[in-house]
# Entry
Amino acid sequence: MCVLQKAMEGAALAEGLWGLADHHEKLGEIGKTIKCLEAICQSQISFLPLVEVKTRFRVSALLLRYSHNVNHAKSHLERCLLLLKSIPSSFDLKFRTFSLLSHCYHLLASFPPQRNLLLKALELASSVPQDVSAYLWSCNFNSQLANTFVIQADFPSSLSALESGFLSASQICYPELQMFFTASMLHVHIMQWTDDYSVEKAVQRCDEIWQNISSDKTERCAGLFFYNEMLHVFYRLRLCDYKNAQHHVDRLDQAMNAHSHKMQEVQQLEDELSSLNHSLSRYNLPSRERSALSARQSQLQERVNALSPSSSTTDNSLEPAYFGNTDRAWTARLLLSPSPIDGEWLPKSAIYALVHLMVVISGRPKGQFKECSKRIDSGLQIIQDELIKLGITDEMQFLENRVALELTRSEYAEAQEALVEMKSLFTRFPTILQASECVIEMLRGQYSHSVGCYSEATFHCIEATKLTESKSMQATCQAFAAVSYLTIGDAESSSKALDLIGPICGMTNSLSGVREEASILFAYGLLLMKQQDLQEARNRLAKGLQIAHTHMSNLQLVSQYLTLLGNLALCLHDTVQAREILRSSLTLAKKLSDIPTQLWVLSIFTALYQQLGEKGSEMENEEHRKKKYDELQSRLAEARGSIHHIELVAKARLEIHQVEEDAQEQSVVTYGLSNLDIPESVGIEGPSMAQSSSRLVGLDAGKRWGKRRLS
# Structure
């Protein structure tokens, strides 16, 4: 009787403290809420195990949602699991505890304990009656387990876990969950990329599953739509299939605009609801007015519910598995899957920034500079607003594209400014942005080449090859360095260019995309022209032009290929073909505001008119060339006059400022977007001045750099 009485007293005390905790939580007093709950855990009174488990679980959920005290939450959850061992049923509570404790281990980067915990959770899920709830929890645990394996670069085990999750989702005929696991498998295949066939099959599987989801459900799966479409873009860009990537970029852009307008409408409705609630809280409100306001409140709430994703109206007690914090409103999240997974791939603002970035990457090679500049500004604004809160580092990729865009249209001072900002970010956060160092060195090389510092350009491009393990990136950097060596023009430099091109010419079939092949063919064709092997040069350049035009839609590279082919036709005394090719090249160069290529073409036109004896055309062309030359010199002088010019072109690696960085931020961000190996579409810089143009077109001077050939 005494034991029963104590149990009843304990239950009454727990109920009272829970009620008080509810009161404080409604008022937003989270600290007081936690104190009320922890009073139960620290009490000398004995409570039933289930009372203590529920209390500790709620404390852990609050700590994870509103604080950074992960260790404290972990301790509560570990105690919960110990207590739950003595309780034969309560499977749902056990599953929730497993899931939330796994989340703690993930935040603490304790991956082996997390893996072991999830395996135990899956074992429990397989031992209980196989109803819908059991299958859903199997999906939850397999998704977390797959993520743990990916972080440890165990891609086969990750794919196995995702396949198990897919089978569980199939057992309950849940197409949205099936799509979640299928898309996740595609993501892993893209990161692993053992062969093109496996990735292509994963893409096809995603398409098949998505088509089986009814339209009313796809409209409520915004996060899953963005995830799937973005993965398709990554896949196409990895193959340098820019034309097919454009279709998915357009779908993403349209969906982003529609979703943004929808969220604006929701925000307006919620603002009005908040105002109505405030009015209804007045105690002296006349009954007729209260009735009218209540009716309007119901209408607004129905509209908000209609616009909200279905999972936002379900049980919110489940914390996210590993995707992010749920304390943000659903309007700020793009959920990937139904409960009990929910979660998101990236925060909504990061997804929006990525969409802007994809528009830039697909639009810049086509010369859509105005739209690209607008998107870069929009993306940078999003990231600057969210960087501190979310730890997003996509800003580097926006800046990378800004550098390339400004170099293409000969705005060297603006390119310099963006490159300095990239350099500043990297030196401040070298660990988080480690993957960006190679790109920065490559862009320093392109900048150096553009402003006429060719020796410095070769240094930075060669340094870039040492900073990446990607064979494709290394090949691209070597091709850039070779072009700079050939622009220098002496025998020693041309020999060094051959040494760079030789090893990569035979490996084009093993590279991941056509971008690298186009870069190599450009450099090799230029070298063959230097060696007076004009017919072989024509074959290589024609093949490169086809790739640049058909697969890449890179107008700058097409223009530069045409310039070389026009020059080649002139050397072969085919003046009719030379004139037509050079006109096309000049038209493209003008569209891109690419002054160096314009000068290059105009220099060849001068030689053409001289060969034809068209003195009037020659004089008119020379007058135009001199104006462009003066314009270029003015822009170069502005860039060279900057205090940052010397440090950017200097033959030295970046100096790193050692700062303390959050360990978890390092692991998450470094593993994130930087490892997707999305190929940027930087064109091969042409010669930057009329002086260098003469070096590249002076084939009649009889210079021979040796007849060493590439097999």
Summary: The chain has 31 helices and no strands. Residues 242-280 form the longest helix (39 residues). The CA atoms of residues 213 and 533 lie 58 Å apart. The two ends are 96 Å apart (CA to CA).
